[in-house]
Specification:
It is a single chain. The protein has about 400 residues and is mainly α. The protein has one domain: Amino acid/polyamine transporter I, CATH 1.20.1740. It is built from 17 helices and no strands. Helix 2 crosses helix 11, helix 3 runs parallel beside helix 9 and helix 15 packs antiparallel against helix 17.
């Protein structure tokens, strides 16, 4: 029992982390390193602090209320849960189209297989995991294995790229330049949209809930953010090593260029493994979490959860293969993920004050303050981003 509980705690952390580490994560990290150089380290550091503040608030309230986020929202204001669920599901579906495309691209790099066939093969792998007799354990094990594999392969690329470590550390605390877009994109890509709820809902499904489980919830939430931050920082260092040498990255696929320029053909193959791992685990995370926002609205959805998850994955694969990867939609939804976070977090922070939801639980004041700071910061940066789009 203790072993199963420990596995669920780390599994929830890796489900959240690998949901965040998708194709967009790899590209955004590389592109922002090109733009900000060593100063991007500060953006990563700031985003990690915002991520932890957001995730601890959300996961703790889910655990204490023993309710999924949409039910919490509906209890606060009838209909609010449906609105939140619609934002999460639409974002999850749009991202899953990109994730399926990333699967195809990763297998193409690795084997030369046409992306269409690679995406279909990956779709089948995801379906097999969800139809496993013990799907929860299968998800936990799969995401942990591929999460560690991505980190180890990227660590090798960092070694080969030989980045200026001292400069990266110094500018991580004293940056030369900043970008509000980079911050909102990183936070939105790490705990925005469906991602911030992935592990929280997984812990609930594993029976890890109530005030007595808060220590485990805290551990899982922070572990998830640190796994994501580790991967982000390693990829930043690898890209920095290439950029500071004056080498030009292929704009069509910047992260692939980093791996190839650092370690040649073997590095390029490693990128294929990392891309496929990032994409397939994000497919699983997006499908699982999106449907978890629907299944409490009608008993039939919960009864046929596996079928609906399967339909979600198959639909994403069909859209990708029929109309391609809708880049503009994906970019827009990526930024919107960061805008969803203030809404979702506001709901959770208000819920933390409602005795009908949390009963005798007292939410830590410091955590509440951090949560509202994240709401204000992300709302302001979201405003700046939208103003920039309009201009």
């Amino acid at each position: 029992m203790k072993k199963n509980k420990s596995s669920a705690i780390t599994g929830a952390a890796f489900l959240m982390a690998t949901s965040a580490i998708g194709p967009g994560f790899l590209t955004q990290t590389t592109v922002f390193t090109q733009q900000l150089a060593a100063s991007f380290g500060f953006v990563i550091l700031l985003s990690v602090l915002l991520d932890i503040g957001a995730q601890l608030n959300i996961w703790r309230i889910i655990a204490v209320t023993e309710m999924r986020a949409q039910l919490i929202a509906n209890t606060l204001l009838p209909g609010l849960g449906y609105f939140l669920a619609s934002l999460i599901v639409m974002g999850g579906l749009a991202f899953n189209i990109g994730n399926i495309g990333g699967c195809g691209l990763g297998l193409q790099v690795l084997t030369g297989l046409d992306p269409m066939y690679g995406s279909i093969f990956s779709c089948i792998i995801a379906l097999l995991i969800f139809w496993n007799k013990e799907a929860g354990k299968a998800i936990d094990g799969f995401t942990k294995l591929l999460g560690m594999l991505m980190i180890l392969l990227t660590l090798y690329i960092v070694f080969k790229a030989n980045p200026p470590i001292g400069s990266a550390i110094r500018h991580s605390f004293f940056p030369d330049k900043l970008s509000a877009l980079a911050i909102i994109t990183l936070v939105g890509g790490t705990v925005g949209g469906y991602i911030s709820f992935a592990g929280g809902h997984r812990l609930l499904d594993a029976g890890i809930k109530g005030t007595g489980a808060l220590k485990d919830v805290n551990k899982s939430a922070v572990t998830g953010i640190m796994v994501t931050a580790t991967m982000r920082f390693l990829l930043f260092l690898a890209a920095l090593g290439i950029v500071t040498k004056g080498l030009i990255l292929d704009p069509a696929n910047p992260p692939a260029a980093v791996f190839k320029l650092a370690a040649g053909e073997i590095g390029f193959r490693f990128f294929g493994v990392v891309m496929w791992s990032a994409a397939i685990t994000s497919v699983i995370g997006a499908a699982y979490t999106s449907v978890s926002f629907l299944k409490t609205f009608h008993h039939a959805i919960e009864q046929y959860e596996k079928i609906i998850i399967s339909a979600f994955i198959v639909l994403s694969t069909l859209v990708f293969n029929l109309i391609g990867n809708p880049v503009k939609i994906l970019v827009t939804v990526g930024a919107l993920n960061g805008l969803i976070l203030p809404i979702a977090l506001t709901v959770m922070l208000i819920a933390a004050r409602q005795s009908k939801l949390v009963h005798s639980y007292k939410h830590p004041i410091w955590l509440e303050i951090v949560g509202w700071l994240v709401v204000v910061t992300m709302s302001w940066m979201g405003y700046l981003t939208i103003a920039k789009w309009i201009a």
